[in-house]
Amino acid sequence: MKISKNVAFLIGLILIMLGCADNKKNIAETQTVTESKSQLPFSWEAANVYFLLTDRFNNGDSSNDVNFDRTRETAVLRGFEGGDIKGVTQKIREGYFNELGINAIWMTPLVEQIHDGTDEGTGYTYGYHGYWTKDWTALDPNFGTREDLAELVKTAHDNGIRILLDAVINHTGPVTAEDKVWPEDWVRTSPKCEFKDYESTVTCTLVENLPDIRTESDEAVDLPPQLVEKWKAEDRYEEEMAELDAFFERTGHPRAPRFYIMKWLTDYISDFGIDGYRVDTVKHTEEYVWEEFKAVCEEAFDRWKAEHPDEVLDDASFYMVGEIYFYDVNSGRSYNFGDRKVDYFNDSFDALINFNLRSSANRSYEDVFSSYSEILNGELDGYSTLSYVSSHDDGEPFDKERAKPFEAANRLLLAPGASQVYYGDESARTLIVEGTNGDATLRSYMNWESIENDPQTQKILEHWQKLGRFRRDHIAIGAGVHAMISEEPYTFSRTYNSDNFTDTVVVGLDLPEGEKKVSVAGVFEDGSTVLDAYSGVSAKVVDGHITIDTSYNIVLLEQTSK
Description:
Number of helices: 16
Number of strands: 22
Oligomer: single chain
CATH architecture of the largest domain: Alpha-Beta Barrel
Largest sheet: 8 strands, parallel, barrel
Strand content: 15-25%
Strand order of the largest sheet: 1-2-5-8-9-12-13-14
CATH superfamily of the largest domain: Glycosidases
Shape: globular
Number of domains: 2
Radius of gyration: 24 Å
């Protein structure tokens, strides 16, 4: 419900009298978002997505920290740390994501994980990351309950934020003493992928002891006995079977392994209204699987919107972004396996994760921005990419030492396309943890203490916040056409024109501190007033320039009057 300005003002006065300034700030932020979210156009092509490992972000409920007797000592950062769904909801309510300019949150898989752990050469590990599924139809209690997820989605939507979950169709979790292998007509346990060509990338197991779903099969299969036994013990077998019958009757799909999993994943759309899926291990599954998955997801999303008209944010369609390891935006629409090329955008993905930006340290801003804009407005027109500077399984991030957090923000948040902020990018959370093996070093717990107490961390965070809000508020940043205005000092414009809506901005980087003269010729007319969203200072356009005096070396210019 929208809070009127008068009511909000009175509430604010009462909160001040009670010494609750922080709560007043949260109410004001919620009001602002509620009033503005319908006015700001949204496009997945320009989204600012926050990616977090649910277990490593924020512990909102310590009572669910241990389940299924997962008490064995693990290798460093390879056990559950306590983060959960409630912890994410808490930070949404506090305004953390709104302050960062985030308009979508991508969370690692929440489904029930294998109950035991494994030791596959990296030290004993539990499924804290969410990619070791035991039961797609249940949430892992370490992450929370269905009620928690429903509250999360509603709270996010109330704040103008969309929710992406993570879809895994390629494999089950590893086999352990507690977690039996699924039947042979469901999974293969060999050979191990060699990644030499299409066949040795798709029809194989990613690693040892990670059973590969037979996604190529159209043969009808019975449910795994261990799943039937589990559902009966939980007194939900009849309900689950009735829903499966209805799904297969409605879709006409055979009762093949992949379609069972698609049904279970689309339930999170039908039941909770999630807005999209980040899809795991895309190139390890036949490309037609993703066309089928997109179709059932869109159908489920359309049904949810029809049944919940008051909860629909806008007319944006269901979003699917795929992870094809080492896909590069410069590859355009195709991924090359060596012996064949595959177009994963065609009737499947709205975007693919872009592995290029994180290796752009030796390229100029202009080189990166202009090349991305050309591709996104050319070969990839109508689609997009999701770029990042660090992630959960990429051992070669843009700035592993976290020595260039300001430049990292500039490169990511001002790049054409959609942006993926990995949790802690905005606070320089360490990516080097002593005693870790493999990707565990990238997955330390969120550094909330540094955000609270360290002035340098706060300065870094403020920079990410300002750029993030500017990106969120200006669709031109991600979805517009890029044009350089001046090489030195470096300034550029972005312009977006679509559906009777125009958005134009000018950005200057590496400018002198203090007084600076910035060219806006051909973008903003003489006599108009522009605001520098970074400093909050306004200036008039005179002879194609503005003169502005700030203590920063960056300007984010938007027109406020003609």
